[in-house]
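Subject: two folds for Thursday's group meeting

Dear M.,

Sorry for the delay on this. The cluster queue was jammed most of the week, so I only got both jobs back this morning. I'm pasting them in the order they finished. Each block is the input sequence followed by the predicted structure tokens. Could you check whether the formatting survives your parser before we put anything on slides? The first protein is the one we discussed after the seminar.
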Amino acid sequence: MKGLEFTTGGESHGPSLSIIVRGIPAGLRLDLDRMNGEMTRRQHGYGRGGRMKIEQDRIEVTAGVRGGETLGSPIAMTVRNRDWENWKAAMDPWAVDEKEAENRRLVSPRPGHADLAGGQKYNRRDLRDVLERASARETAARVAAGAVAKELLYELGVKVSSATLSVGRVGDPNRPVTAKDMSEVDHESPLRAIDRTVEGAMVEEVDRAKLDGNTLGGVVAVVAEGLPVGLGSYVHWDEKLDGRLAQAVMSVHAVKAVSIGDGVTAAGLFGSEVHDPIVHQKSKGFSRPTNRAGGLEGGVTNGKEVVIRGYMKPISTLRRGLASVNLDTREPHRSQWERSDVTAIAACGVVCEAMVALVLASVMREKFGGDSMVEMKRNFEGYRGQLRGW
């Protein structure tokens, strides 16, 4: 059985973003308000740029749903770019105004961005052709796809959530993280910090970076609760769930490292300090009193919460610029600045959530199949009954 598949299309300042999700069974009732709530969460966060004042991201479902229920066919969605009105002349798919295109051209590529490497790869001398797709605006489409995946997971009792552990040098990226911690996060707070006592210092860190014309990264945590034992596989390298999750989170813009459980800190400890003991109780069966493995052993879920950390580098668009080269003159030149964020760490957590949800929904589909939600839930409950027999 295939799992979920999704694809996105669209440029940052094009008319819209397009999303297609395949593999959702028929009969899943979607909560559009909840889905659009995910879009709002992605736009939130202290340190965001002016673009967030223009956009008001909403999901428009155009196929695969009738009367609020999925049909089993591909689900097509659109997210409009309101800023398109300001960029029509330069970004129209058919008739580009040459003068406006020249005004919008990126002459000095940004270190750390896809600008130069992308231009060389696709032979596009106007780097606008690269940066428009490489922009993190694309993550709005991923969150829309992830919102559909979350609806499937909700139906099966699985919840995925995230929080900010650190911004720059403020916070503790290695602190233990649980679903209970996530339930106590204030998602309306400036940075959705897991530790409210340091959130004020995080805001000050962002303010300092802004005054300096600089940017900041940080660390986010994603926790998935309610997963059964046995998702993923140890049999083939590409079926190991930890590898699939790591790739999904690493694919998020500016994420340069991923850790599962205590993966980073565990590298410097003894085995006796790392591995989770196994216990058995007649009433509860097998369990582990700790979760240093982050819910995954041998690429397979073990019934504990899945815990993932994503390490986001500072955004590569700096107001003060970085050392670069003018593509026309080949002379040294500061990289150009385009309206951008000081940090997008709060949004990064939401995007990582979406990617984790998409992977988890996919492996649930692979294991439990079903053309309809009734069939899939029946298979799921049958497997849970099998596990209770252990």
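Second protein, same layout:
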Amino acid sequence: MAPMARLPGLFALFVTLPAAHAVVDSCVCDPDDHSTLQARQCSLTREALKQPPHPPFFFLKDNNPNKPNRTLALPARVRKGFYTLAEMTPGERAHFWTAAIEKARELWGDGWGLAVNGSQVRTQCQPHIHIGRFLPAAENARNYIVVDSPARIPVPKDGTGIWIHPHGGKLHVHLGEQLTETVLLR
């Protein structure tokens, strides 16, 4: 087969790779059945179960050796299956975003960024926010809104992700993408 003839097949493989890693259909995490928590996609759920209920959110250093500059924000509360930001109350979400922003500022000053991957590429059942240094080259003029507080950050629709960074005393909230953590320094 000629090299050019293989390109469509390679492209199709590349495009489907993120979906192959999604856990939406295979999230077995059940806090009432500890045998289900051994699955890889339940590792953050296991960490959340070790936490006291207060404070309601906690932080972990990302244990991926390819992401040495990342921290994760997670809710201490767990639920069965694939747990999303949409399942939190508006008050819980505002508190979650506020806690993540405070931690991001503590770690990165004004150069912080937050990212939540969409459901097609998310590899953990427990919701989590990636905290890191924002890469300004990632900024684009499409699919973002400007909000003035964490309480105004919308819930991503249709399973897409969200990434946020400070801009002029407000927040740029980028919507409509799946893989969002790439806007942060690894």
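Two things I noticed about the second structure. Residues 119 and 159 are 5 Å apart (CA to CA). Confidence is low (pLDDT under 50) at residues 1-21.

Cheers,
T.
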